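User: Please predict the structure of the protein below. I'd like the answer in structure-token form so I can feed it into my own downstream comparison script.

Assistant: Understood. Taking the following sequence of 188 residues as input:
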Amino acid sequence: MTTDRSVVAADNNVYAWASEAKVQCGIALGFLKSNSRDAESLRRCDFAYGMMTRQPAPEAPMTPPPPPTENCPPEVASTFYFDWDSTVAPADAPQSVAFMADNRERCGWRSFTVVGHTDRSGSDAYNDRLALRRAQVIADMMAGAGIPATAIAVSGMGERQPRIQTVDGERTPENRRVEVEVNGMGGQ
């Protein structure tokens, strides 16, 4: 094996053990030719030969680690802020929706509630309709990203649950939002 080019070029210790076996077995053979048996040289020859011909243990199949659940918001998966009197989704909405769709299984999110909100400018009836339309825009984006429509519940709160309390008629950007809430956390 010490003259075999594939052994010499191999990326393992076979060549070194073949060289060691050649030396140790040569010593043991010299003793045997002189009609004497040297136990130590025979042991070293046997050991080096065993190392030279040893087959590596097969690698155990790797079982994938359980999916990490960090970065899995437990209650509100995302919040989308809208311009005044608008149902046009914010520019960053596609990335947030993609995150929810891509991580739904990993995070164990079984279903979502999409809730629209408005600020306190406008009538109650108008704001209820506007909040529902905003929520539907985000729900449609979620369904388009692969989240089953049956896993999405849509509702509108109008101006009834403001993030920031204001007087009636005041325009407040923080209140013009759609919150996507997570329901049915699996494995949590």
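That's the full token string. Residues 122 and 129 are 11 Å apart (CA to CA).
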